[in-house]
Amino acid sequence: MLMKLNGRKGQKGFTLIELMIVIAIIGILAAIAIPQFSAYRAKGFNAQANSDVKNAYTAAQAYFAENPTGTVTLALLQTNGFKASANVTTAVTTGTMAGLVMTSTPANGTLVYSVDANGTITSAVKGG
């Protein structure tokens, strides 16, 4: 009876080859997953910047509805409902109704988004 509780003799666990194969498989999976994760993070940051420039444009239109001859600034956009996301820099290049140009740049993304007076959003490679 005591022999059954102790298990079989000579069987002590995994061999070194088996453990090395498992570690190699984990390494291969990690090598595939890490670049994909980085790409997904960059897409997320870019989407955040795109959303911010859309929201800034909407806030600018709300300001121009009451002040058609006024000039928007980032502070005025914030009083009209715009709230910038963390790690995204939004700037007003030209703040008039006819020549409105705003940009939104993610800290960790790859694109810069711009919106014009017509609401057309364009993107450009960051730093390019």
Written overview of the protein:
This protein has three helices and four strands, in the order αααββββ. It has 128 residues and is of the alpha+beta class. A four-stranded antiparallel beta sheet has the order 1-2-3-4, covered by helices on one side. A hairpin with a 4-residue loop joins β3 and β4. The protein is rod-shaped. The mean pLDDT is 89.
Q: What's the gyration radius in Å?
A: 28 Å
Helix content: 40-55%
- Beta-strand percent range: 15-25%
- What integer is the average pLDDT? 89
Question: What shape does the CA trace take?
Answer: rod-shaped
- What is the helix/strand order? HHHEEEE
List unreliable stretches of 5+ residues. Answer: none
Q: How many helical elements?
A: 3
Strand order of the largest sheet: 1-2-3-4
